[in-house]
Amino acid sequence: MDAIEKGRITEFYNRYRENLIHSMAIEADLMIADDRQGWVAKLRQKSDFLRKTYQENEDELAVLIYPYVKKEKKLDLVTATEFYENICDMTMNAENDSLLTTEMLKLLKEFYMENDMEDEWINSTYMLALTYADRSDDISAENARDYFEEVSRRSDRYCNIKSWDARQRVIQSFFNCITDKDVQSNEERLERIVLYENANRMISRADVRELDGTRLDFDKFRDDMRINLMWALIRSDSVPNRAVIEYVVRELLPDGITRENLNSRASVDAVTYVWCNLHSGMISANLAVSMLFDYYRAQTDEIDYRKINLFYDDAYESKITCMQECFRVLALPEVSLNEREQLFYELATEFKHIYTSTPYLANNNYINDDLCQTVRLMLRIATEETEALTYVRDVILNRNAMTLIHSLMLANIAVTITKCLVDKAPELFFDMLNTRDPRHVRAKEKYLIDYTENSAQLHDVGKAYISDVINLQTRRLTDEEFGLIRMHPTFGDFLLKDTKLGARYRDVILGHHKGFDGKGGYPFGFDNTQSPIKIIIDIITIADCIDAATDTLGRNYTRCKKWVPDMADELSNDTKNRYNQAILSVICRDKKTSDTISYITDEGRKDTYFRIYRDYISDEKKDSTVEIETVKIK
To answer: pTM of the entire structure?
Structure first.
């Protein structure tokens, strides 16, 4: 294949990024949902733009990217350099794209290793780690740590690395290896401590300080690592052992912290002080709750929501991390405060305010990571199912518009199917309701409808961890992205673990992508045929397929179908036993139900989309302008 003309890669990256920015601007304009006719026209504009962009991107990717990814073409130094410069621009501007950044960085890493270009290898490996670290899911976090550790292991030959840029990456990799928002055990805590100590030894070396002491304040860097390590050690449900607590008190906590001056200390020091005293038995859980809430209320700095990257906003970091620990301690069974419920609602109200105030589409991956962590903690305390569902819909799904829309569209279809089955085939619910009486099933119609509707709203909640993949619809997905999408039932199960919602809806979340006979689909380890709510799983599975295949507005990567006759015939002629044919037989024969599904998935889709944007996503009381970072075009 012919060599790529110099500059063409840059032109493509710039155009690709400009199209992403434009699609975000269109999405931002949809936040103003006051006139249905005009709004539907904007929605159509978005869909048309995305479909056109999708095809244009695929045409360019076929020439510039796919030949390298498929190993049909080899990189040369000039092309590799042009790719790296553009990837850096995207990554440092938090424009994560698994194909254009992650996959290409893997190739660059391999190319630089083969050509014995150490500095370039360090830089590309570090950037590769950053692309994984920018995501919310645990799989990506593990990949990020692996690549950061690869770079940090170059510390033994630090002074032999030629460029300051590469040496700086080695130092920064230690910092990023320590970072972790979900350390699961004391073994993992000790791993972070060892990394911290190794980094300390490296930056204390005389030759390192002599070489780069004028470029970097090593003492400040050590303190930044200390703060990072403290957050990593305490953000966990596992109880710390004595050795960990003693290390934190001896090596990490500043001297002079007391209950009397706690509210004036930095958030990491204050929260860690309470954490150490709680787990060493020095204070009760009740007192720990009171101290944490007093500290939280004393913090008066306001979050600057205008910032593109809230990671650098001290007030945001302080509030969220302290809030998470308040929820974590409040959920402890030993807490017996009379005002426990009041404290929970106070914190939950503040939680909703923070996340609904953050501009839509801004900080998405970073925000979703914190969001999922915090929701996991708060849902353990929520006592009412309706209340917990509200937090999931109004906060998690609200920041993931396409998942929210799909969930509510699916709910409309699934409820329609449930009503039909209760009327025409009540025997399908006998096993679920432990009855053989059709009258009993019909008497439970409201319960079944409510359960189906709630199941639909929760079935895809795990997609919050992979919103960057779900919302990426301007090209074909990579194999790695498809792998993450197949993990969303498992992510959803993890998000709702140990909560009332998880106990009631776990089977739907895990089972809605399994085949009717339990032999196909994912996740592999879940057997939907053994679930007592198998009929609800089957309804959600069918409704899920119907909405996805008939979506004329939200999906630009496939040509949509009509419910009748396309989808009805296709599902009824299912040769792979993926769908419950008893359900399909009933709803396809019932004209009223079939007509209702046709309306919901066609003309009614516009009404549903408009209502969701107006009622859930749009906020007319706020400035409807969504701040979008400007791409710096060379």
So the answer is: 0.87
